[in-house]
Fold this protein.
Amino acid sequence: MTPVTIRVSRFDPASGQPARLVPYTVEVHEGARVLHALHAAREQDPSLAYRYCCGSGQCGSCAVKVNGKPALACMTPVGDGDVIEPLDLPVVRDLVVDLVPRIARIAALLPKGGGELPDAATVEALKPLCDCVECGSCVSVCPAVAVTDFAGPTAMRQLERLVLDPRDAGDRVSQADAEGLFTCTSCHACYEACPKDIEIMGKAIERLRAEAHRRGYTFPRHAEIADLVRTTGRSVARITTPLFERVEPVIEPYGPVRGEVAFFVGCMYSMRLPETALDAIEVLRRNGIRVVIPMEQVCCGSPLLRTGQTEDLERLKRINIGAFRPYPVVMTTCAGCGMTLKKNYGDLPFRVMDINEVLTEFGIEPPARLPLKVTYHDPCHLLRGQGISEEPRAFIRGVADLVEMPAYCCGSGGGVKSGKPEEAAALGELRRKAIEETGADQVISSCPFCEFHIQGHTDLPVRNVASLLLDGYRAREGDARPGERKVQ
Amino acid sequence: MVDNGVSTTHVLVIGSGGAGVRAAIEAAEHGPVVLLSKTIAGKGGCTPMAEGGYNAVLREGDSPELHVADTLRGGAYLNDPALVDALVREAPDRVRELVSWGAVFDVGPEGGVAQRPFGGQQFPRTCYAGDRTGHEMMVTLMDRLAATGVTVVHESAAVELLLDDGRCAGAVALDGDGAAGVYLADAVVMATGGGTQVYDISTNSSSGTGDGYALGYRAGAELIDMEMVQFHPTGAIHPYDARGRLVTEAVRGEGGRLLNRLGERFMARYDPERMELSTRDVVARAIATEVLEGRGTERGGVWLDVTHLSARQVEERLPIMLEQFLAFGVDIRTEPMEVAPTAHHIMGGLRITPDCATTLPGLFACGECSGGVHGANRLGGNALAETQVFGRRAGLSAGRSPVREKGVTPGIDRQLGALRRRFDGFRDGEVPPASVVRRLKETMWCGAGIYRDRGQLAGALAGIEVLKHERLLARTDRNLLDCCTAANMLLTAELICRAALLRPECRGAHTRLDPSCELPPDRSPYAHTYLSTAGEGIEEVAR
């Protein structure tokens, strides 16, 4: 037996006091899970309330936050110092949350009668959507649930499961639309939180949206974007001189060539925020990386894919793969493009790397440190879409002091900014609050959608990691004029 | 005392596993139903954790007669034949019904519900949804339940049955705050599941605390064959806190091999014909014997090996096993699992007719809390089938019960007074229930395990008697339920030991080291053991 100290959130609704963390030092066996530590703590204090039942990860009763992340207490190893809190849902007492109303929003199959078991292919398609143990983790982390009446990620999982099932008599697409199908920002927080690893966005929401699109549920604003892509190859209209008209197709570095990337610029950085893309190119040049820009490239298709308008996708894929085929490394600076190329394009004849990965792999010249306090906003499609978290932070710490804030969707993804602007604004305001609490001078991110959207919800400059690095380089070179330029 | 008031309903169902929910669905056709669930309904009981499958005769080559024969032979001929007949005849309809309600079972090579071999079967008749069969059934049943008008009371546990003029007239339940509510009904369905949580090493969920046996016994209903505790051959043994966790029989159904420390496929010594797919009593005794005779692993188990199967087969057919073992650092695609027997299922329970009537008027029972379907040893896959067949039958019988005038009669009021005094006793108690439960589990594991004799059983009973005299303490009202549950566990354990002393033979899962009768099961002079507040004994077969 070894002693561990866990801190457990205690809350008694009758006390009128807010929840507080109470430490318990308990003896546990080797391999003990959080649940076993809770059992031991309850022996010390029988008033401690938490749920559990099967003890083997199959009933979903015991989901709690362990060190800030949802987890099943019965399957998660306990560690000394662990902080155990309730899921971010209305708390009944201690670790017990009001789960039943959330479960009640998961639709039930409406039998047509006389239903036979579907064929093997249908069952294979259904099975990955049947693993849900209704633990509430996905609902507790969902930004759309936080600011709208969205039924929640697992409710959408179930509706897609019902759409695929020939035995169901319900009109699930209309139901999905009514229950918030288009509120999902595609942040993937539900996937990260799911103890059963159900990828609800890709496996359910995008498929439901595609079906909804076929049935005519598409927002006019989303349809306009699809039209724009169809006619111009770009999802953003021309409002300034696009990057492609400002640069040569091959941009040599300042010193010896240490490497080469083909730059997939994306619609936002090419059409709306080209200055940021120029900053990124400058940083690459200063680090010996040749930048090639194939001019035939078009929209990656993400804005269509996330809104269910998938008809044009194969054409875009074909053009882009053709344009980049000659190059071994394709670099993205937009988190959304990066995730789309990596996750939705299938097998590719080249390697796709985000700029943070490129700079980490090649290594960078150290920038000057500036007397600056910044916070970092994790783009969902970089953090959860591509698993990139530490790399941008390392670059930021090279230039400025980094004050962390919780990673949370800003509201701009999944077609929400264009389709549900009031929801995007509500989430943007949540970011404003989080940013204010850090006391930072600037907000740094690594995604044009996040940068553009958050700029509308803070008075601080919102800037790209590459722009911050460039500030550091310029300061070192003596032409220090740290950019205070705001994103337009 | 009755903070949550008095409610009345036509049918009260206690328990929200596969049997309870099926009973509620059926009863709802006949009038108002209240379903009391100790957990959030759908999450409790052992159905959602049941991995392996559901036995039903669905294909040519199989027959009801074969299923009956397998069940009786597996049950060492202690089963009640009328119950077996109902199980076998109706299991196919109930699985088809689940399919029509949306259950996603695996599909067989020629279409239809896939079936695989399980222990003790002459035909591969176990329907499955990967190794999360029970979970899939439970999800389907909850969907169906939602379409009825059943009132579901979540996280409220029945702690006492109420009696009126010799009939069961309802129950008292405690909610999560320890507040009591009275539920009066024309008929009550007991579907509380099993009770192997009384053992130190058990596969059961937290609700497997024997509540139905204890409540039924205290109310005067008769129980049979409580000595028949199935030790599932393959429970996890590492890490310590996961000991007992079920390693599904599907592992052996898919071709898993049992090996001792010397690498011998030891089942050849115990059942060369059926090998790993022998019945659970035989396999559990074989593993226990290997360990006792020094051929076990260092941790006191044996190896269960699927590394000769393709990784794909393991991933597709045993995904939960793969996930659970990976969580504990073992990749079963490349390493064997370490396993030992674990208390799994109580074959005994409330005596029922094929219509699920207990010996107490007004009380019906179904699922694991009832006895007689499985005899002395249950076949893998027969329990999930039992939940549906007898859940429906219990719901139907209860639903058809005549409507009566319901009210808090003087008799019920006296019972509530007694319960109040019992709760006050808990509030003034001294010993935390958790400590009593811990000692009980050890007592039962040592004294009423796979191998038993008179001395061990009497010792266990004496130990239980000591624990019964501990004054259980409820620090807050929310701990009243902990005290009630501990008391139910003590009574369940006592019933197991008393019944085990009554049966002087080895039969199925009940292995006496000191049998006074050594006739084979089919020629045994004994039938059911029985226990009630009116008396106890063992029935003899008239020959």
